[in-house]
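Researcher: Here's a chain I'd like modeled. Treat it as a single chain, no partners, no ligands.
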Amino acid sequence: MEENETAKKKGQTDNVSLFRTGMIIIMLLILLVASFGFYQGMHSAIHDLFDYRYTSLIGSIFDLAIIAAILYIVREFYIKKQ
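Model: Modeled as a single isolated chain. Structure tokens:
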């Protein structure tokens, strides 16, 4: 009798863990889409706010800042864990 209850609880925790993992994946995909929208919107704002001679320079600085932020996040959360 106890084995059935233990197996039932384990099955429920597996389902909860699977649900949480699925929700995290869905939220990360939504974050990815929103990030692309933000990235494109920032480039559009750069073209609108700055003189045409400086849009390439400002856009490159923005891209460099994005690359630096991504490298920092990868280094902090993935490389240091190993």
